[in-house]
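Incident log entry.

Two folding requests arrived from the same account within the same minute. Monitoring flagged them as a possible duplicate submission, but the sequences differ. Recording both here for audit purposes.

Request one:
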Amino acid sequence: MNAGEIEKCIDAFGTDIYRFCLKLCADKADAEDLYQQTFLKALETEWTLDWESNPKALFFSLAHNLWKSDRRKQARRSTIAPCSNFDDEMETRLCSEESIEENYFQKELIAKVRQIVQALPEKFRVPLILFYLSDCSIEQIAVIIKKPPGTVKSRLFKGRSLIKKRLEDAGYER
């Protein structure tokens, strides 16, 4: 790909890719690095981009594969020399029209859901993030994670069930 095509891709769906990177990494600095690595990798390859097919899925797949590769590298390194990350989670901004109590409880619930989603196994977390936060269809997710659509559907169902069960166990009932 050339720089013009990459620039066009960034304009077309760069924010979706960045949001996906942010949800995968759960850290702004790591997400920015992953975002840049994704487009740099695309620039380094000699692919020709077919705008008739789904180029957005290609970039989601690139980001996901780079993230998995980085996690494997970190796992290998942590066995040699463990390290920890002390960054605070991002604050969620809510509407100011709500009361202070509702605002507090809403932030608490969002933090709990974020914690539960980050604790889910990768095979459930990635489809949930792609489906709900990146608005990918089941077919697009199937291409990105290289699994059949039926598997994606079952992982989405199981992921939602796990989130619901863990919220109920924590005392959040609807």
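Request two (distinct sequence, not a duplicate):
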Amino acid sequence: MSNTGKQIKVTLVRSPFGRLKAHRDCVRGLGLRRLHHSVTLIDTPEVRGMISKASFLLRVEEN
């Protein structure tokens, strides 16, 4: 699979502390480590699934 796909920027805006383990795992799986940390990811169905699972903790920007 090529890396020429659309990219999205994901920022952690709320703390995963005290949330369900599945939500914390999704945040870590996206590569987010601390509040206001941002990562740029390739827009795939797998990434979109992790984002939707913990969407209330994240801010997503289309690039």
